[in-house]
Each structure stands twice: as C-alpha cells, then as structure tokens.
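Dear colleague,

Thank you for sharing your sequence with our group. We've completed the structure prediction you requested, and as agreed, I am returning the results in plain text so they can be pasted directly into your records. Please verify that the sequence below matches your submission; if there's any discrepancy, let me know and we will rerun it promptly.
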Amino acid sequence: MEEYYFNKAKFVKSITDVKEAPEEYNSSVLFVGKSNVGKSSLINALTNSKKLAYTSSKPGHTRLLNYYSVEDKFYLVDCPGYGFSTKKDLDYKFYGDMVEGFFTDNKSLKLVVFLLDSRHEPTDDDLDFYNFLLSFKYRFVICMTKCDKLNMSMRSKIYKNLENKLNFDTKKYAPLLVSINDKKSIKILKDFINKSLVEG
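Please find the predicted structure tokens below.
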C-alpha cells in the first residue's frame, strides 16, 4: 500500500468556485468545521509546518477554499469556517453557495475531515452541517480538536455530546481525538487519511 508521509507540502491557490480548483491530482481531503475550531493549525501539524496554512486567533479569517499540495500526490483543502459572519445573510449565502458547489459531483473528494471543538457540545451550526454532509455520500470522519485541553471528565462527555446533539453512533464510527501538541494523535489522523486515499 502506498503511504504518504506529508513531508512535502506547499500552498497552491485559493478559490471560491470549484471550477477554479487545481486539477494536477485527482485526490483531495477537505477540512471543515466552525470558525476557530483549528482547521489551519491541524493542517500545519499534519505537514510539520508552522506557516503553511495561515492561522488567526480571530474567527472567520479563512474566506476562501485554500488548496495545499502534499507530496505532489493530493490536495489538503482548508474550508472557511461556518457560524461566524460580519455581513450576516450575505456571508451565509456566499458560504453556502461555495460549499454546496464544492460538494456537488466532486470526483476528487476522497475524505471530509469534519472538525468539532472537543471542549464544547456541538452547536446548531455543527448539526446543520452534519446533516448537510449526510445528504452526500462522501467518506467522512469526525475529528475532535484541542483534546490536550481536556481533563478526564471532559473527555468522557465527548461521546455523549455527539450522540445527544448529532445522533452520531460513536460505537460504530469512533471519532478521532486529536491535538496539534500530541504527535500520536496526528499520526492516527495521517493513517486514516492514507487509508482513505488508497481505498478511494
């Protein structure tokens, strides 16, 4: 089985329309979640880079679909976060149109990494996107971020929160618990991405 080590990565381009997406490789992995959940930081951790994906303490910084080439084989795609808008309805429509266009008949999309903040119960926006995701047939994994910030009691609530808010079967589909400060959890996510790319 071919294995990718995420050692070689570079920014390719930013787009708002999937028709503008680079086509050099036929495989992509999308990172999506609410604003400030840690998408860009996780991409940096996966590629062992502090500056590949721009991170900000302010929510709503990423405004475009950002494509990163990895090992000249596939793309990691950083999606704008949902649930934050300074322009209200205008931004939500822009976001919805962009994301729906990306998901519609996207033959290169091999995996959706759906990020949720492990410290909090999923929000209504998380539920809305989860239901949107279920309306398509793409492979996805729920990835709980910032798990290094949890004590044992908070960790035990993760599964209950997913089951209660999203009606997600944690026994059948175990979520990944990750932290950018925990190399073991990053390796587990890499392995999951590898498997998804190979099985296609």
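Summary note from our side: The chain has one domain: 9-199.

Kind regards,
the structure core
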